[in-house]
Amino acid sequence: MHKHDGAFSEMTAIALYRPLKTRIGEKAAMVAAFVFSGLLHELAISVPVKTGYGLPLLYFFIQGILIMIERKLEYNGILKNKLVAKCWVFAGLILPFPVLFHKWFLKGIIWPLISW
Predict the structure, then answer these.
(1) Which letter does DSSP use for residue 101 in this model?
(2) Residue boundaries of the structural domains of the chain
(3) What does the alpha-carbon distance between residue 104 and residue 48 come to, in Å, rounded to a whole number?
(4) CA pair distance 2, 28, nearest whole angstrom
(5) What is the pLDDT of residues 10-68, one digit of tens each?
(6) Do 71 and 2 touch, CB atoms closer than 8 A?
(7) Transmembrane region positions (predicted)?
(8) Distances (CA, A) of 7 to 10, 89, 105
């Protein structure tokens, strides 16, 4: 999970994580990057529908915790099995999706867009 692709992830890493890592340490910089990402997602997901505040931030908090757990699992060799690693990624990203894309966002933004 910690090897994310995408422009937003790269921008967060360059602008926030890497500079903070040298100043406040790796774990604190990672927390800051996830909080920043969570707040930006709050603006994009919760603010437009004026409800569900805190849920996108919670999703990114969960992701940060999962990355810390993943690092321990990698260190212990548990994720060397490709099936276990794929299940880990799937569970960590997909299962908490309802927290990120909460029902109010789906009802207020997504469903109207796809039901023309």
Answers:
(1) S
(2) 7-114
(3) 10
(4) 15
(5) 888 899 999 999 999 998 999 999 999 999 999 999 999 999 999 999 999 999 999 98
(6) yes
(7) 53-71, 83-106
(8) 5, 20, 23
Per-residue DSSP letter, 6: S
Q: What is the pTM of this model?
A: 0.84
**4: confidence class by pLDDT, cuts 50, 70, 90:** very low
Distance CA 88, CA 86 (A): 5
Report the alpha-carbon distance of residue 26 to residue 107 in Å, rounded: 38
Identity of the amino acid at 75 = Y
| Tokens 């969570």 found at | 38
Judge whether 73 and 79 are in contact, CB under 8 Å: yes
Residue count of the chain: 116
Structure tokens at 18: 């890497």
Largest Cα separation within the chain, whole Å, is 50
Question: Measured between alpha carbons, how far apart are the two ends of the chain, in Å?
Answer: 35
Confidence of residue 116 (pLDDT cuts 50, 70, 90): low
